[in-house]
Give the backbone structure.
Amino acid sequence: MLRSLKWLAFGVAVGALFVVERLRPLRASKEPGPARVGRNLVIGLLAAATTAASEWPLVAPAQRLAELRRLGLLRSFPLRYVPRVLRLVFGFLLLDYTLYLWHWLNHRAPGLWRFHAVHHIDLDLDSTTGLRFHFGELALAAGFRAAQVLVLGVDRDTLRAWQQLLLVSVVFHHSNVELPIEAERILQAMFVTPRMHGIHHSTKGDEMNTNYSSLLSCWDRLHGSLRLDVPQEALTIGVEGFTASDQVTLGRSLSLPFRQDARLLPPVEAGRL
Ligand SMILES: [Zn+2]
């Protein structure tokens, strides 16, 4: 019952964001109209089905094994004697930090970038981009999630709380809502915001290679990868070489990771930095 209510609240929040970002857009749209939204929703549905299907054979068994054998950093000496509430906080921070590293790796490892590029080739950036991940990327991410559970030793309550907040954050920071700049500055001190993540979706390598955080913004500060000095009107959203709408259709987006395409080199290797 509580679970259904949470999903209902999430659906209402996404719907409200979808309306507000059209009333108060932060960036001008290159592909207005329903075709792009429909494409992102189909890719998002496949992604959601993949995540749900990966939970049972991958993440849940990893969680059971880690609990049974007392595996992972947070269950090791001396951390297992730390109060539970502190272990929850550590677990949350470690999940979010290792996701930063995973996202960074997705921009460097050619096999991962092929899939992550499908998310980046969207010509506009809005709440539906936050749902648009290739099903292959989410299958790989489920393997990474199982590794996080085994290595970090986070319990299922911490994992669930972090995943729920992450989902809200991902839809929010991809959105095209123009927040008052003061509100965005206050939020940015702690969380990833639409202007901050917009820079990460730039076609330019020195802009895309920044702002990898997904929930808490501190990881970019820690690694010196935070960039806030690019005005949104100066951004071109997408990936170099994929700037026309006939290059990002549903079929071409879904088949992209499996094609031989010289444009699919990770931005770092392609010398765009
Ligand atoms: Zn990225």
